[in-house]
Amino acid sequence: MKFVDISFLLSVHSLKQLPPETLPEIAFAGRSNVGKSSLINTLVGRKGLVKVSGRPGKTQGLNFFQIADEAYFVDLPGYGFAKVARSMQDNWQHLITRYLELRSTLCCVVVIMDIRHGAKIQDTQLISWLKQNNINCLPVYTKADKLSGNKKQKHAIALDAGHTIDPSQRIIFSAKNGLGKEELERTLASFA
Ligand SMILES: Nc1nc2c(ncn2[C@@H]2O[C@H](COP(=O)(O)OP(=O)(O)OP(=O)(O)O)[C@@H](O)[C@H]2O)c(=O)[nH]1
Ligand SMILES: [Mg+2]
What we know:
- The protein is α/β, with parallel strands linked by helices.
- The protein has a single domain (6-191), classed as Rossmann fold (3-Layer(aba) Sandwich), CATH 3.40.50.
- It contains 5 helices and 7 strands, in the order ββαββαβαβαβα.
- It has helices at 36-44, 86-102, 121-132, 149-163, 181-191, and strands at 6-12, 25-30, 62-67, 71-75, 106-114, 137-142, 171-172.
- It starts with 5 loop residues before the first strand and ends with a helix.
- 37% of the residues are buried.
- Guanosine-5'-triphosphate is lined by residues 30, 32-38, 52-54, 56-59, 78, 142-143, 145-146, 174-176.
């Protein structure tokens, strides 16, 4: 499946606003500023579709995109952004957790991590929570353009070890040069 015919559907700030569970859904999660929105833009080949920012906390609410009549993409707000008020963080956390637990059409959560950084506790927690709840999880190590070939592999292996991920089950990616784009397309199509 090529993810081309895509349009913005709605931004969800409470469970009541969720669209009906009609199409298979793929959600994109990760720490604030890791590159979730950029990854979606690369995947769909539309630079400006999802707003990208150098400032963490850009994406607020659950942003739904519809891909033809085939699937929804859900851009989740980033976690771990300290400058957002505590009460708001709690609200996001609650909304995202309930969404992930309740959504029967959710077929995969892409967990995006910065390949340059070591394993972060919030990613580890999310990955193991998804496993416990029998939700498909696809780890993606992004910003790979920022590392040389050798370092890329070394960092990827360290992240695998930190999160107990099998190297065949994750994808090394770059929104800047398109590395891993086709592999990601193929893998997501197999879930949707
Ligand atoms: N070099 C490089 N920069 C990237 C890549 N992906 C994202 N960025 C940059 O990282 C910053 C954050 O990107 P976003 O896509 O807005 O990140 P996000 O995870 O959606 O951020 P929030 O919505 O705030 O949680 C921007 O300055 C992007 O240009 C990548 O693969 N390579
Ligand atoms: Mg974003």
